[in-house]
Amino acid sequence: xxxxxxEIISRYFQKNQKKDYNEIKGIGDDSALIKxxxxxxxxxxxxxxxxxxHFLKNISxxxxxxxxxxxxxxxxxxxxxxxxxxxxxxxxxxxDSLWLEKFSSSFFDILNKYNVRLIGGDTNRGPLSVTxxxxxxxxxDDALLRSNxxxxxxxxxxxxxxxxxxxxxxxxxxxxxxxxxxxNYLIKKHLNPIPRVLEGIAISKIANSAIDISDGLxxxxxxxxxxxxxxxxINLNKIPISKILTDNFQPKYYLDWALNIGEDYELCFTISxxxxxxxxxxKQNFLINFTCIGYIxxxxxxxxxxxxxxxIILKKKGFDHFN
Length: 323
Ligand code: ADP
Ligand code: MG
Prior knowledge:
The protein is of the alpha+beta class. The chain has helices spanning 5-13, 61-77, 97-113, 163-171, 180-191, 197-203, 217-228, 243-248, 251-261, 276-283; strands at residues 23-25, 33-34, 40-50, 82-92, 117-125, 129-139, 154-158, 209-212, 230-235, 267-271, 290-298, 303-307, 310-312.
């Protein structure tokens, strides 16, 4: 079945959604209208996913929808914002009702999980690409800026790192894993990342700075360091790596995946030592780990990595010697 642009919008995207009192107008007019509650600021973030660049050609519509929402919500999480609304701009080569049905049901599944409402968008014909904008609310003073890390802060990472990269290499046929359970687990970690939304909100009152890990820990923590004009000492033995990776691969592989590839969408944040007790209480509400991997130093001391107590020389691309 082929639909027109307006049929696509009303059939697949204009769903009955729970409204909230700040939403004055959603889909259906020239603009959506939103009221910003007193004492709140709006956190806005946009990410585009293009076929061949951000996802492989054979991705399922369900996985594409999930990944698009997850990577966008991850940016709000890294700010400490509470997600509220989203707009979707979708470009597709043809109007394929089966594809649209699967995309839209997975899209609303994950939106509903996080209480996010679709309030507008745009629908076009062309090579497959999806652009999502997400809008969240937070108190201005709670925003987790990249520029707010302080010397002496402890550096934390949520969850585990490296599995998404392993899953990507499996999909690209660069990594071969015989065990089907492990194979499928790693692929799922890559295709269905979990945005750390509740974790980001929970630490927003006590952490100083945060970023989500999309490009690998080195690059993303590097953004905090350059924006905050700080250095850092990181103990690579503390990087949280799942048992699945440590049991099946050598450190030179999984550390490279964790440090340089990324797409884990975990949070990296810094927090002053005086708030550690509060953080330990917050941790109890979550099933995932919050792991301290190092601390912030003055900028002159640089960005240093230690493995088995030895300093590691950071090469431009990848890591060299983990003996
Ligand atoms: P306009 O021509 O004024 O830009 P459109 O015809 O593009 O309006 O869209 C009509 C309405 O449908 C608008 O409210 C717009 O936000 C919404 N809309 C269009 N495409 C989508 C989409 N993919 N998802 C959600 N809402 C959409
Ligand atoms: Mg339009």
